[in-house]
Specification:
By secondary structure, the chain is of the alpha+beta class. The protein is built from six helices and four strands, in the order H-H-E-E-H-H-H-H-E-E. The protein has a four-stranded antiparallel β-sheet with strand order 1-2-4-3.
């Protein structure tokens, strides 16, 4: 019902907030991926789903596959029970990130433009 074609036909613009990634892929032109209230990645639907850059986005997109541990490529989000204390001033995802370095716990990364219009909040993409 709320497909991109329907939106275009009626010349609609809307803000859609969801935890259902499969739905956002079908109806959204641009997607912002948030973690604990902070933007981790922002890009077109195709950029987010076919070329995710932030480790959290990669894990979310990977989880769209069936939640079957035998499926290769399925990345699980590691547990981090003490996350609130760790992130004062740093990246909120650092405690769960497989690429986190010391600076990730100390400093909050800005949004870096990795590709045209594809922004990511991760020091790995700092130029």
């Amino acid at each position: 019902m709320y497909t991109r074609e329907y939106k275009k036909e009626l010349d609609l613009t809307y803000l859609f907030i969801s935890h259902q990634l499969q739905i956002t892929q079908k109806i959204c032109d641009h997607i912002a991926v948030l973690y604990l209230g902070s933007v981790m990645e922002l890009g077109t639907s195709d950029q987010i789903f076919f070329r995710p850059l932030h480790p959290y986005t990669e894990m979310l997109v990977s989880s769209i596959l069936e939640a079957d541990p035998d499926i290769p490529g399925l990345v699980k989000v590691p547990e981090d029970p003490g996350r609130q204390e760790k992130y004062r001033g740093g990246c909120k995802f650092a405690g769960r990130c497989p690429h986190a370095k010391e600076e990730c716990f100390r400093e909050k990364p800005g949004l870096f433009e990795a590709d045209s219009g594809h922004l990511v909040s991760c020091f790995r993409y700092r130029i």
